[in-house]
């Protein structure tokens, strides 16, 4: 479904990703783990076309999305929930969702489906996005991406700094998306959160792809996790 | 004439200036707010609007209202198209880098100004207003314990000046409606809030930038077409509106449209009142002092949001 084929990317002359290869299938959650600065967020930005590739390509359903202009990447069906939420400040909840809806001209029932997943957003519908609590903002960032009806979903540390009930709610939504056949790449720092939700875990170090391990293996032997993460 | 009628006259003159200034400054503020580009060439787009208005009225001929009406539509469109071309050929290539675009727009300023000098010449040329009826204004006095209207000698304005105030208000309301109520406004506000996220949600940011730069320039040109029957078209006329627009935008808060309008009213009215009662130079000194005070005590402007 979504594939990174020897992707190299960085900022200016500084190369961060070095021939990173990954793939995630429909209905699968691939968790990307690595230390700070390993290149996880850069990989997300490279997939979205927000930084130019120095080499390699990104494929969605076999089509090369890295050849598209950046604004056409989400239109191909990739939803992005960035680290730090990055909502459109100054716009209301409704307007943030409207931006998501117009990305792929989603029919109105998609909005209803998304609001059914996050009933709290319906209560806050006319409220400016920046007045929401941290958890509600994360819900909105996720809902905005789901308004695209994405084939692939990129979640960059979606549970960072959230209270447990909120983490659980977002986890349930991610699992529902898996059930609907969405291919998900999840960046997660917390091993317990990764083990609870992922199908496979891909380790990334210094911008290079490392082992990709089925999560059952790590559940059976958690010491492997420490070894792969080098902690 | 008593103080009251003088004050009314000064307020009317100030309102004409505020109206034109608000249009010019809103264009500048829009460009900075959405694109983060400080457009030093904004005054030249204003000047081009006035010069093109002169050309159009000369070419169309007929009654003044016909030529002026055509100029009111054509001049902003041409100036907007020139700005879009400048955006695509210059600013886009600089990746809208805030520092380099300042230098680039200084270059644009001189290119536009000198090309105008070569083609249009150094003369200041008038454009006839479409209508210009002198309207005497009444004032009131207390006579035998009751209010009574009277017509002080010299207290008058023109129908055209009132039309400029009305047109300014109408266009500003249109810009507000576009930003607050339309899909285009929503997209522009999303780009303003977060360029990368706008791209990540399918918004063609560079196309939005080109449109905003064109719209900002067209607003300046429209302001110039409105004011040119009162002043005159001259190739150096862009400097004053640029400085005043910056004054207004800094006082109102860079990128804040309501702040820009409020500051334009404040500067326009104070300029009108101080010019009538004291001198235009004192009005400029006080406006500059106000900018300095705002920069010291409230750098984000009256309506701006302090960046983290």
From TrEMBL, chain A:
It comes from the Bacteria. InterPro entries: AAA+_ATPase, ABC_transporter-like_ATP-bd, BCAA_Transport_ATP-bd_LivF, P-loop_NTPase. Residues 2-231 form the ABC transporter domain. The keyword Nucleotidyltransferase does not apply. PANTHER family: HIGH-AFFINITY BRANCHED-CHAIN AMINO ACID TRANSPORT ATP-BINDING PROTEIN LIVF (PTHR43820). One of its GO terms (molecular function) is ATP hydrolysis activity. The keyword Lipid biosynthesis does not apply. This is ABC transporter ATP-binding protein. Belongs to the ABC transporter superfamily. GO terms for biological process: L-amino acid transport. Keywords: Amino-acid transport, ATP-binding, Nucleotide-binding, Transport. It comes from Pelagivirga sediminicola. Pfam families: ABC_tran. CDD domains: ABC_TM1139_LivF_branched (cd03224).
UniProtKB/TrEMBL annotation, chain B:
Its main location: membrane. It is a multi-pass membrane protein. The keyword Glycosyltransferase does not apply. The chain crosses the membrane at residues 6-30, 37-56, 68-90, 102-121, 160-179, 208-230, 242-269, 276-297. It is found in: Cell membrane. Belongs to the binding-protein-dependent transport system permease family. LivHM subfamily. This is Branched-chain amino acid ABC transporter permease. The lineage of its organism: Bacteria, Pseudomonadati, Pseudomonadota, Alphaproteobacteria, Rhodobacterales.
């Amino acid at each position: 479904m979504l594939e990174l084929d020897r992707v190299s990317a960085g900022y200016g002359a500084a190369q961060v990703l070095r021939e990173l290869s990954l793939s995630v299938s429909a209905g699968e959650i691939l968790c990307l783990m690595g230390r700070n600065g390993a290149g996880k967020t850069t990989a997300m930005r490279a997939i979205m076309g927000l930084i130019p590739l120095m080499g390699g390509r990104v494929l969605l359903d076999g089509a090369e999305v890295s050849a598209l202009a950046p604004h056409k990447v989400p239109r191909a069906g990739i939803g992005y929930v960035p680290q730090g939420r990055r909502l459109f400040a100054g716009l209301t909840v409704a307007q943030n969702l409207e931006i998501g809806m117009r990305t792929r001209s989603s029919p109105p029932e998609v909005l209803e489906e998304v609001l059914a997943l996050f009933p709290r957003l319906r209560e806050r519908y006319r409220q400016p996005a920046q007045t929401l609590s941290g958890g509600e903002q994360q819900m909105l960032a996720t809902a905005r991406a789901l308004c695209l009806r994405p084939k692939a979903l990129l979640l960059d540390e979606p549970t960072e700094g959230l209270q447990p009930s909120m983490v659980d709610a977002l986890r349930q939504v991610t699992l529902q998306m898996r059930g609907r056949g969405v291919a998900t790449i999840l960046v997660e720092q917390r091993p317990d959160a990764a083990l609870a939700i992922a199908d496979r875990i891909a380790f990334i170090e210094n911008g290079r792809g490392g082992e990709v391990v089925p999560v059952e293996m790590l559940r059976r032997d958690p010491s492997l996790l420490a070894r792969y993460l080098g902690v | 004439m008593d103080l009251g009628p003088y004050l009314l006259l000064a307020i009317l003159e100030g309102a004409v200036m505020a109206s034109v200034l608000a249009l010019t400054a809103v264009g500048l503020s829009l460009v900075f707010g959405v694109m983060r580009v400080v457009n030093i060439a904004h005054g030249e787009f204003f000047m081009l609007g006035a010069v093109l208005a002169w050309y159009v009225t000369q070419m169309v001929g007929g009654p003044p209202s016909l030529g002026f009406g055509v100029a009111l539509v054509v001049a902003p469109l041409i100036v907007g198209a020139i700005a879009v071309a400048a955006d695509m050929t210059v600013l886009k290539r600089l990746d809208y880098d805030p520092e380099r675009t300042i230098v680039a727009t200084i270059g644009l300023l001189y290119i536009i100004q000198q090309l105008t000098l070569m083609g249009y010449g150094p003369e200041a040329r008038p454009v006839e207003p479409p209508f210009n009826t002198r309207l005497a204004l009444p004032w009131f006095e207390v006579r035998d314990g009751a209010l009574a209207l009277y017509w002080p000698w010299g207290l008058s304005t023109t129908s055209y000046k009132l039309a400029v105030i009305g047109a300014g208000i109408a266009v500003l309301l249109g810009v507000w409606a576009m930003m607050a109520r339309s899909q285009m406004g929503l997209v522009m506000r999303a780009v303003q809030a977060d360029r990368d996220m706008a791209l990540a949600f399918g918004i063609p940011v560079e196309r939005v930038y080109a449109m905003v730069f064109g719209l900002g320039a067209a607003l300046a040109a429209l302001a110039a077409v409105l004011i040119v029957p009162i002043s005159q078209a001259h190739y150096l006329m862009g400097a004053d509106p640029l400085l005043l627009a910056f004054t207004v935008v800094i006082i109102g808060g860079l990128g804040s449209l309501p702040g820009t309008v409020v500051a334009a009213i404040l500067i326009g009215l104070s300029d009108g009142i101080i010019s009538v009662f004291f001198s235009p130079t004192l009005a400029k000194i006080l406006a500059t002092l106000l900018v300095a005070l705002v920069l010291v005590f409230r750098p984000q402007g009256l309506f701006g949001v302090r960046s983290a």
